[in-house]
Specification:
The chain is globular. With 382 residues, the chain is mainly beta. Strands 2-3-4-5-6-7-8-9-10-11-12-13-14-15-16-17 form a 16-stranded antiparallel beta barrel. The N terminus is likely disordered. It is built from 4 helices and 17 strands. The protein has one domain: Porin (Beta Barrel).
Length: 382
Amino acid sequence: MRCPPPMIALLALCCLPLVPHRLVQATAQEPDEERTTVGGYGEVHYLNPTGPGTPGEVNVRRFVVYLAHAFSERIAFRSELELEDTKIEGGEDGGEVALEQAYLDYTLSPAATIRAGLVLPPIGIINETHEPPTFNGVERPSFERNVIPSTWRDIGVGLVGAIPGSSGLNYRVFFLNGLVASGFTADAGIRGGRQEGKEASFANPSLTGRIEWARPGLRLGGSFWYGGSAAQDPVLGTGSFDNAVALVSADARYDVGPFMFRGVVANVSIADADAINAAYGGQVGSRIAGGYLEGAYDLLSTLAPGSTHRLNAFVRHERYNTQAGVPDGITRDDALARRITTVGLSYKPVYNVVFKGDYQLRRNRAGAGEDEQLSLGVGYQF
């Protein structure tokens, strides 16, 4: 029986015990209560766009350290610290050191755990479960960057747990700081509006949540986000829900034998996109929408039926538009209606290590700036 991946255990809904194989220290004074856990994940990429004059590039994309401590059976701290693009150096572009998560869990019962701190809004698939061995493709789906802006994290408090009397039904709901409209763009949607826990304004609180039904091999979920984005800018308004952003999404994962399927759809509405564009001179859409479907098959189930390794051949097709709707006076840019098809292989000699390769065709409705890309990568988690 395979161990559950550590970051999936991290994001489990109730107070599941910390992953046993990551237990590295227990205090002598309280061996049955306090314990500290260390883990992490990382990935290295080789990307080679096929256009003229664009040589391949290699990059240590992410190096993440996971640290958790259980103070008792009911109270635990969990965190992730991420380094992107190898290093940070003064005067140079690129690279980032950032907290991805840092929160306390206080378990009241299987139905209710209080979670407070820097948390991941439970939207879509990748935002909560984004370790390299958990998804196909060298890079995360583009949809999960420009529509659902993964990795999305904000500060607040909420409840997670299993719904009493149900079978496999659970929930997560959080009260968090809001987005900031000055960071919205036509190309990347609301992504630049995330505050990510850095001196974040709470002028516009937001509510986000998810309900999820899980059975062996099947996981269905629905998520939402609602909150203002004016950040007390008098041009946009000073009310709590001025320049409201409303996001709804649904996702499904289904594994049956050697076959694996997943899909996500989302719609983002920006209530006062015209005011945002007037204030900041942008071309922000009033609606952002799209989704993707992916199917995979374990080739080794046919080529080497007795093997414990996996060799997943997959295809993913994404369609999304960050200007699915535009306010009056804005001309829709058809280059933002994107279609991305990715085919590739993921080889997993063990569950928590993956070697990947894929080929991506990037198209759009305008036929402008289209290209293709070959990608290779290696990833791990522990």
